Amino acid sequence: MARYLRNGFLITFAILWLIPTYLLVVNAMTPSSSYDGSPDWFPGGFGFFDNLSKAWESADLGLGIYNSLLYATLSAGIAVFAAAFASFAVIVMPTRRRGLWFWLIYSGTLLPLQIFLAPLFKAFVDVNLYDTQLGMVLIYAALCVPFAFFVVRNYLTTVPDEITEAAQLDGAGWSRLFWRIHLPLVKSSLLAAFVFQFTWVWNDLLFGITLSTSPNIRPVMAALAELNGGYSSLGPPIVLAAALLVSLPTVVLFLTFQRFFASSLKPVG
Amino acid sequence: MGAGVTEPAPSTAVRTRAPGAEATPPRPRAHGPRARRDALTARAGIAMYILPALALVGILLLVPFGYTVYQSLTEYDGISPAEFVGFDNYVTLLGAERFHRSLINTVIWTVGTLLLPVLLGLLIAVLTNASGWPVWVRYAFVLPYAISGTATGVIWGFMLRSDGAVNQVLGAFGLDSLQQEWLLSWPMNTIVMILAETWRAVGISIILFLVGLQTVPRETVEAGMLDGASGFRLFRRIVFPQLRAVTVVVVGISIANSLRVFDVIWLLTQGGPGWLSETLAVTMYRQTFVLSEYGLGSAVAVVLAVIVVSVSWIYLRQQMPKRG
């Protein structure tokens, strides 16, 4: 009896959870001309690519995708390397005041993002970084550093001191130690941090709508938000098709790295 | 993993290069300008490694943070010069009905997105961990986590609009009386948005709890069963205590996320109707970038930061095992 109850509960919830995704896919496929004003529950016709091309036209979705790809790759890459350098300094090198450096860099993730917005907006306008690709890459990189630092640093503490000492006796300098010994040893944490931060940048809306405005600069989520603003005039299938498309990259990444995510978030100790 | 890397310092290599290596580092009696210069270059070397991360965080995050704190003490409309007004902005906030509502909504969001994803995540993780469930059941819950808040807003807008899927289903089952404008009245709009966020966020709790469940030793569970524990009792007395570390992480993540939710609200109601469904994160954005009241907006951001930091700190202090 308890068993049936349990299974019934689980199946019911699983189906409930799938419904929004199912409706998203079905209605993103519905040709926008044949959408009759209420959601379709069964596939009818295949208008996905037509819907996308309309979204492409009205919100420059393609440019948004290109920009987000650029920002996510570059910023996550820069952040991971900056984080690796800093972790190396704090863990391996004989640095003084390690705690201070750790908290200075890590404090970025403790604060809510809203606290950075207004001064950034003003400063970006003043130094001509507002609505530029360079400005977006810089701010996303900065936002990604603290958490990447946290992940890589944690991992670097597991490298035994003997390795460092042995290599130093061998005559290796800091840069050789870093590039040849420690970086290869913490490779998997670098990848985990990169995937995490890539996903974060790709999914960001707040900084996209605050620090950029023109279609050839703004990231993809800002474009999607604008499309959603024209929901009633464009029709749901077009907006849903765009939402489906921009979700695919992170869904694929997530499925590929699922185990990885979990193990790198595991509490240490 | 790094077998080739851990071994490249066999004793022979050390011995052959020993003279050169000995000459530089371990000289305890080195004084004078030369030693000082060495210490300086060493420090400069370290600085080169810390600098990129520190510069990015310092210039783009910490300086703006400090400036926001300062700006919360001024009145500034983005055009005419800023005027120092002390704590006036905070006093204004204390008396503003809109700010009270925003605070209440923030509390509702925090409690809601704390309880629902964590409890539901734990329940689903335990249930799907127990027996051989097909993979799709787990993926049904986990997949939405990969979807952005913006796309979640689009999807749930499609569900919740007056001509959306939810009202359609209610109509089809003859429950017309339950049909309503889900997003246009408070507190219903906040409740359904919390459900939308739960739909997205439950995945991460499930994943983390599943990882935690795998670390529970089989012997412990079997011993508990031998002692006659089963079902809920077995879970509460034997399994759950082992999940403590994971629970701390899941709850910590949920608290931090729930206080920052912006995308879902911005897409679904923009904080409306009026400002009824605003949370602090949305109020700050609107006050600053829509209404151009920089000082007030900054004060809201500071209040939010104080809440986030102190809640996380209190929580972690309580949960972390005390050292020494």
Stretches of chain B where pLDDT is under 50 for at least 5 consecutive residues are: 1-30
Radius of gyration of chain B: 28 Å
Q: Could you state the CATH homologous superfamily of the largest domain in chain A?
A: MetI-like
Quaternary structure of the protein? heterodimer
**Structural shape of chain A:** globular
Chain pair with largest interface: A-B, 103 and 96 residues
Helix and strand run of chain A? HHHHHHHHHHHHH
Beta-strand proportion of chain B:
under 5%
In whole angstroms, the N-to-C terminal distance of chain B is 34 Å
Q: SSE order of chain B in H/E notation?
A: HHHEEHHHHHHHHHHHH
Number of strands of chain B: 2
Question: Could you say which structural class the secondary elements and strand pairing of chain A correspond to?
Answer: mainly alpha
CATH class of the domain at 96-319 in chain B: Mainly Alpha
CATH T-level topology of the domain at 96-319 in chain B: MetI-like fold
What fraction, in percent, of the residue positions of chain B are helical?
Answer: over 70%
Region (Disordered) (chain B): 1-35
Subcellular location (chain B): Cell membrane
Membrane topology (chain B): Multi-pass membrane protein
Transmembrane segments (chain B): 46-67, 107-127, 139-159, 191-213, 243-268, 294-316
Describe this protein's structure:
Chain B: Belongs to the binding-protein-dependent transport system permease family. Chain B: It is a multi-pass membrane protein. Chain B: This is Carbohydrate ABC transporter membrane protein 1 (CUT1 family). Chain B: The chain crosses the membrane at residues 46-67, 107-127, 139-159, 191-213, 243-268, 294-316. The complex is a heterodimer of chains A (269) and B (324). With 269 residues, chain A is mainly alpha-helical. Chain A has 2 domains: 2-50, no CATH class; 59-265, MetI-like (MetI-like fold, Orthogonal Bundle), CATH 1.10.3720.10. Chain A contains 13 helices and no strands. Chain A has helices at residues 2-29, 48-59, 61-91, 98-110, 114-126, 133-156, 161-169, 174-185, 187-203, 206-211, 220-229, 231-234, 236-265. In chain A, helix 2 crosses helix 13 (236-265), helix 3 packs parallel to helix 6 (133-156) and helix 4 crosses helix 6. The longest helix of chain A has 31 residues, at 61-91. Chain B is mostly helical. Chain B has a domain at 96-319: MetI-like (MetI-like fold). In chain B, helix 4 (88-95) packs across helix 15 and helix 12 (244-260) packs antiparallel against helix 15 (294-319). Classes of the chains: A mainly alpha (269), B mainly alpha (324). Chains A and B meet through helix 1, helix 3, helix 4, helix 5 and helix 6 of A and helix 2, helix 3, helix 5, helix 6 and helix 7 of B.
